Automatic annotation (TrEMBL):
Encoding gene per record: DECR2_1
Family named by the database record: Belongs to the short-chain dehydrogenases/reductases (SDR) family. 2,4-dienoyl-CoA reductase subfamily.
Lineage: Eukaryota, Metazoa, Chordata, Craniata, Vertebrata
Protein name, UniProt field: Peroxisomal 2,4-dienoyl-CoA reductase [(3E)-enoyl-CoA-producing]
Enzyme Commission number(s): 1.3.1.124
Catalytic activities: a (2E,4E)-dienoyl-CoA + NADPH + H(+) = a 4,5-saturated-(3E)-enoyl-CoA + NADP(+); (2E,4Z,7Z,10Z,13Z,16Z,19Z)-docosaheptaenoyl-CoA + NADPH + H(+) = (3E,7Z,10Z,13Z,16Z,19Z)-docosahexaenoyl-CoA + NADP(+); a (2E,4Z)-dienoyl-CoA + NADPH + H(+) = a 4,5-saturated-(3E)-enoyl-CoA + NADP(+)
Species of provenance: Characodon lateralis
Amino acid sequence: MAELRKRQELPEDVGSDDCLASYTHIYSPDLLKDQVAFITGGGSGIGLRIAEIFMRHGCDVVIASRNLDKLKEGAVKLSAVSGRRCLPLRIDVRQPESIVGAVDETLKEFGRLDILINNAAGNFLCPASALSFNAFKTVLEIDTMGTFNTSKVVYEKWFK
């Protein structure tokens, strides 16, 4: 009973990758008009919600992660709710060459890149004592090296 009540009190976007049923613009609806954002880890969770809010404010986005099927599904939902363009691209932030290809595709499609959101993350939901050495290494490679890799590629290809 308490679990059901707790679930009913959560905001609608918790536990779902569906777009918000309604959205009230806190900022100007065209705050990000014609900007382009590149969002790693954009296929679900926080990254998908960032993409949605950016798109509702006029931004076109690239959502990038390892699961292309999830990305394509998310891109369809996001474009339908916002009317903006969403390009789903498969990357692995641990592999700089995959990032290079995705940034090249972004620039080919949109001609610019204004915003980078490093949201890709590796997670193992367990106590640290249960985390293997390899699992911890994977988390560091994705969270730390992946952030550096993506930032460096975007800087070298566009911001520089």
